[in-house]
Amino acid sequence: FAPHSYPANYLDDYEEGTWTPTADGGSTTYHDQYGFYTKIGRLVYAKFNIRINSYAGSTGYVMGGLPFTSMNVTGSGGSGSIFYFGNIANNAIFMGARVDPNVSAIYISASFSASTNMGNINHNWAGNNAQLIGHVIYHTA
Question: What is the pLDDT of residues 23-46, one digit of tens each?
């Protein structure tokens, strides 16, 4: 196993900032839309807190607005956790987050009971008063 070679200034590419998580639907309104990120080289850690007031979308399993597009390599996406969820559109006992290749969005997955696998790869969470708090880690292009 050979170590990967990085440019001498690789860790000089450090950035922190904010981003605005969004639910599908241009006329959706929000109570809270907070996002913070740290980027080191191509690695991005993005946290979010989104609480919808009135949902006006049609694709309730997507959260848009990530600060960087993910790497466009098959199998390269990212993943994360949902720390808190409330008032979601469908029942779930566990929720997770993933970033697919070549997107700037988070896809929400869920499990419906302790005895099953992820019951719905794309879990419709968004609705009036729904809230998610969590994070994802992924690589940029």
Answer: 976 789 999 999 999 999 999 999
Burial of 99 (0-12, 13-18, 19+ CB in 10 A): buried
Span 110-137, pLDDT tens digits: 887 665 555 556 788 888 999 999 999 9
CA distance 46 to 118: 23
Separation in Å, CA 28 to CA 18, 37, 59, 115 = 20, 23, 12, 35
Look up residue 47 and give its two tokens: 């946290």
d(CA 17, CA 20): 11
CA–CA distance from 135 to each of 6, 21, 49, 113, 138 (Å)?
26, 11, 9, 23, 10
DSSP state of 117: S
